[in-house]
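To whoever is on call:

I kicked off a structure prediction for a single chain this morning and the downstream step that reads the tokens threw a length-mismatch warning. I double-checked the sequence; it's 99 residues and nothing unusual in it as far as I can see. Pasting both halves so you can look.
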Amino acid sequence: MNQHIGSDFDAFLQEQGIFEEVEAAAIKKVIACMIAKAMVDTHISKSEMAKRMKTSRAQLDRLLDPDCHSVTLATLTKAAAAIGKKISISFEDSDTQAV
């Protein structure tokens, strides 16, 4: 009988030792999509966004790249301010236990 039948994907990722890495990558992709959508919704070009953030277009491209995981909290805060938003972070109880 297959030992993984009935287990969830989070448990599998934890068994593989990559849960936190995969979760961080997923969060980064969501953040990149949220910022890109806000830019479209508010008609802000990449050049204008970089100007508002007081950064380079290359830095903005890294922020919007869902596969680039080296983004600082300071950069996220600047991006949020540039689109008229603020960052809100919360910690929630985990439904999973470390393996």
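Update from on-call: the warning came from a stale cache, not from the record. Cleared it. Sanity check on the structure: The longest helix spans residues 19-41.
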